[in-house]
Recover the amino acids of this structure.
């Protein structure tokens, strides 16, 4: 499977970031495994340590298995001013996890991130590719319930 | 084809989308069908209209009526009252001391603004090449390619006084001249859409709301310095911006506005999108170049302080907003552009207003306007009329200013001097 | 697209499609669409205007609507505003009259 993804891109070094993105996005647990790194290393003919170097530099990549849905709550100042800490507390309590952890059912991973550039509607979070703004404690509960019901 | 009588512009910038504008659009389709007037109304998804705090917002033409905080439940009323009976719903308009403000142009938020880079943002459908062309799009590129020499292009930018909007305020023409004068078989231009500063979303809104403008500006710049390849480096947190730029590139290629022998001038240009993966420092130009090359985004020293190289070739990195100004400068002239702003900071600047301010959102004002005007006149002042304490200008690299500095002008020099 | 003239052609056509957002409009047709107007058939009148204008390929005419004009007995009421000329108000409109007025 990793080989197939690699083969979609030309075997040049500058495609590394895209290959990593696609492997992570298509993996049900949204992470990059050791096998994946080996496969990329063979395909691009670059040492594994180079790949780990890149992989660990960027905050969006994970080397640990994660949940089906990745929640990324913005922790930058404009969101903080608008109460992102309350939203975080709420998320932790309804999901029963700390930051960086995955729920027992494997449905959600809770992460913090820097500004998502939607600060006009702070506080903001992204779940996968969708942005949710003007968050309140009630609103996050609703959003999580809805996603829970969907999958 | 039947004629439309209403243009319904729904803001689909990320702010309004996060507030539910896509669901509202779906609902409009349903309700219009119920009333059997689907064929009379044009529903257009636009880029950010600016007042994100009031999202989801929309403007209805020909009257130019502005509605705020529209919910799915309001759609039926808008259609049956406004569209069918011609009675705009004043409940959904902005109110100024109890009086409803109907037209978008009368909303105070818009009145002190001067839109150059944001000219089309929130006014056209960003996914339509035709609408961009209707506003005069690609005319500047055509004129530049067929009537001007690269050096003339650089000279005109010099005359306009354009300086980089990416933070440093570096005169754009000097960077271009460096690459122009450097002989090489290949040269690159990179549009910096990394925008990592917390609180900033100017570049996202531009990329999402008027992607063809950025494409056109990039091609003019590329022609000036002899680049044949361009990269849009857009952070992965901006999926919509990535999608829109990719789409714009496809559209431009399809009609021959990008590719080989553009406007029969012999100029060839190709562009592609590259994305980051979450690293603030990748906004710095050398870090960005390393990231595009597929490496860790570490900033490294350059051989020459002004000249970047990617894959060893001369490269210019320009910010999204810098590039966004270029087509308009060529359409309206250097003199027009330099008539706005201060002595050393020409033109306008886009600001993202966030925090405890009444009108959060995206605004464009002439350089040199004071912080007071920006915060109180355009931004509407503090929420709940609280006392103003401090404002942070720019990102983590900017400084915090207090009440004492409210009369500081927002331009490169004054803000630099004011920050302690 | 190879020349500036090609671009201009596309622009003219595209501006046409965007004329509701302001642009060159020679004639503005304002249909009174209050409750009584609609009761008297203003919707049909408006529709016919739209169809006729499209059929005749008139590019500088804009159709829009307004609320009750207060002249219930004359509904449907239509204002015809032509640039540089005084406004003309037509009463008791119907689709047939619309078709004729375009001729
Ligand atoms: C840490 C750091 C972060 C930066 N982030 C950005 C950014 O997000 N966007 C940007 O356009 N420029 C950013 N810059 C500035 C760029 O290095 C570069 O000067 C700019 O893109 C040049 O474009 P301009 O001349 O059009 O302003 C950053 C610089 C540093 C040192
Ligand atoms: S600060 Fe949270 S989205 Fe910008």
């Amino acid at each position: 499977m990793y080989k197939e993804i690699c083969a979609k891109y030309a075997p040049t070094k500058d495609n590394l970031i895209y290959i990593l993105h696609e492997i992570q996005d298509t993996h049900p647990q949204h992470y990059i495994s050791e096998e994946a790194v080996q496969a990329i290393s063979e395909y691009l003919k670059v040492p594994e340590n180079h790949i780990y170097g890149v992989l660990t530099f960027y905050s969006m990549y994970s080397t640990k298995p994660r949940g089906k849905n990745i929640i990324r709550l913005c922790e930058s100042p404009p969101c903080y001013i608008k109460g992102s800490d309350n939203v975080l507390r709420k998320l932790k309590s309804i999901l029963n996890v700390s930051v960086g952890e995955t729920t027992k059912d494997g449905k959600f991973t809770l992460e913090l991130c820097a500004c998502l550039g939607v600060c006009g509607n702070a506080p903001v979070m992204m779940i996968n590719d969708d942005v949710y703004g003007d968050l309140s404690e009630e609103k996050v509960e609703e959003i999580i319930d809805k996603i829970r019901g969907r999958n | 084809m039947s004629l439309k009588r209403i243009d319904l512009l729904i803001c689909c910038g990320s702010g309004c989308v996060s507030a539910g504008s896509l669901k509202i659009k779906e609902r409009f389709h349903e309700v219009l069908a119920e009333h059997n007037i689907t064929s009379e109304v044009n529903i257009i998804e636009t880029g950010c209209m600016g007042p994100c705090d009031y999202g989801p917002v929309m403007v209805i033409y020909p009257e130019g009526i502005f509605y705020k905080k529209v919910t799915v439940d309001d759609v039926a009323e808008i259609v049956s009252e406004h569209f069918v009976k011609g009675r705009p719903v004043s409940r959904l308009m902005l109110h100024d001391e109890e009086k409803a403000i109907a037209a978008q142009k009368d909303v105070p938020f818009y009145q002190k603004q001067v839109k150059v880079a944001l000219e089309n943002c929130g006014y056209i459908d960003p996914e339509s090449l035709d609408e961009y062309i209707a506003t005069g799009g690609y005319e500047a590129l055509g004129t530049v390619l067929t009537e001007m020499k690269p050096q003339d292009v650089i000279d005109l930018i010099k005359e306009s006084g354009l300086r980089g909007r990416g933070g440093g305020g570096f005169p754009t023409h000097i960077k271009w001249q460096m690459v122009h004068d450097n002989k090489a078989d290949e040269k690159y231009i990179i549009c910096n859409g990394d925008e990592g500063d917390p609180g900033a979303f100017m570049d996202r809104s531009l990329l999402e709301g008027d992607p063809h403008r950025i494409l056109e500006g990039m091609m003019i710049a590329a022609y000036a310095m002899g680049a044949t390849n361009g990269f849009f480096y857009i952070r992965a947190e901006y999926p919509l911006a990535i999608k829109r730029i990719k789409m714009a590139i496809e559209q431009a290629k399809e009609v021959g506005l990008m590719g080989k022998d553009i406007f029969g001038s012999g100029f060839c240009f190709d562009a592609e999108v590259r994305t980051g993966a979450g690293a603030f420092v990748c906004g710095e130009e050398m870090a960005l170049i390393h990231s595009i090359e597929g490496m860790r985004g570490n900033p490294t020293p350059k051989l020459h302080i002004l000249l970047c190289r990617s894959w060893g070739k001369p490269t210019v990195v320009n910010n999204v907003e810098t590039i966004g100004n270029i087509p308009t400068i060529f359409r309206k002239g250097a003199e027009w552009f330099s008539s706005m702003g201060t002595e050393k900071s020409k033109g306008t600047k886009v600001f993202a207003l966030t925090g405890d301010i009444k009108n959060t959102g995206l605004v464009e004002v002439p350089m040199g306007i004071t912080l007071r005007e920006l915060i109180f006149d355009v931004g509407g002042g503090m929420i709940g009329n609280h006392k103003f304490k401090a404002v942070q200008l720019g990102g983590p690299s900017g400084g915090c200013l207090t009440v004492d500095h409210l009369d500081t002008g927002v331009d490169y020099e004054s803000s630099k001097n004011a920050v302690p | 697209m190879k020349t500036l003239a090609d671009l201009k052609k596309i622009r003219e056509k595209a501006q046409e499609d965007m004329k509701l957002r302001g642009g060159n409009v020679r004639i503005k047709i304002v249909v009174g669409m209050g409750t009584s107007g609609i009761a008297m058939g203003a919707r049909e009148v408006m529709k016919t205007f739209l169809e006729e204008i499209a059929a005749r390929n008139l590019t500088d005419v804009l159709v829009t609507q307004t609320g009750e004009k207060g002249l219930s007995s004359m509904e449907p009421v239509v204002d015809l505003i032509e640039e540089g000329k005084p406004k003309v108000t037509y009463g008791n409109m119907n689709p047939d009259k619309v078709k004729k007025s375009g001729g």
Observations:
- Residues 79 and 89 of chain C are 4 Å apart (CA to CA).
- Chain C has a mean pLDDT of 81.
